[in-house]
Amino acid sequence: MSTLVPDGPSKGTITLVHLYPREMSIYGDLGNTRALASRVRRHGYTAEVHDHHPGADFRDDAHLLLGGGGQDSGQARVEADLDVIGPALRSMARDGVPMLMICGMYQLFGRSFHTVGGQVLPGLGILDVTTRGNDKRMIGPVCLDTEFGRVVGYENHSGSTVLGDGQEPFGRVLSGQGNNGEDRTEGARSHHVIGSYLHGPLLPANPMVSDALIAVAAERATGRPFEPADLDDPLADEARGRQVRRLVG
Ligand code: GLN
Description:
Oligomer: single chain
Number of strands: 13
Strand order of the largest sheet: 1-3-2-4-5-13-12
Radius of gyration: 17 Å
Number of domains: 1
Structural class: alpha/beta
Number of helices: 6
Largest sheet: 7 strands, mixed
Shape: globular
InterPro entries: Class_I_gatase-like, CobQ_GATase1, GATase_3, Lipid_II_synth_GatD
Subunit structure: Forms a heterodimer with MurT.
CATH topology: Rossmann fold
Organism: Phycicoccus avicenniae
Order of helices and strands: EEHEEHEHEEEEEEEEHHH
EC number: 6.3.5.13, 3.5.1.2
Bound molecules: glutamine
GO molecular function, one term: glutaminase activity
Helix content: 25-40%
Strand content: 25-35%
């Protein structure tokens, strides 16, 4: 467990849990957890970060959950534990706990993942999406329109994901492949659960997504509305702005 304490008096303690950092954290996805914890601190709250490993007790009192990408083999290694903590995750999702699941964990938050090797990994069904592995990988920079504004990131997946009827995407693809390279959808969002293929990691370049997650988590943690600090993000804004200009003009 690590704790980040704000400079002034703390407005409250927000508990973040990162699921399976050993098995599911490729392409720097651990950076999402670091960016969130640091932003929680900069907003004047204390961030308590816990790693959840297979077989360990699960913190079902977490205010915010994160998960990253992984190889098909990493996904298979966490299946048994996901089965154990699945009921808690489903009930937390229903209850409105904010969650950000990237790539491999996004696929496992869906209904099922059919790997290119013919394995079927059952998902949690928190997001109404189904994924099938392909021979072709979808790789490259991505730009999306989302309800949080323009979001940029980088995708690298062979899984092709289809949304169920009525399932909201995370965003609309302006450049890149997204869920399947065909329907211009990217990721999925239900209530406060976001699934996305975007690495980068996603949050450092898109702090407005961090703030949306933190706002909900802060309210759950303190019972009071989120009290944001007035933060400046010149580097993130420049990084995102450059990628948007390069990809969509
Ligand atoms: N194994 C999955 C795929 O390639 C997930 C990859 C990832 O998490 N980057 O579709």
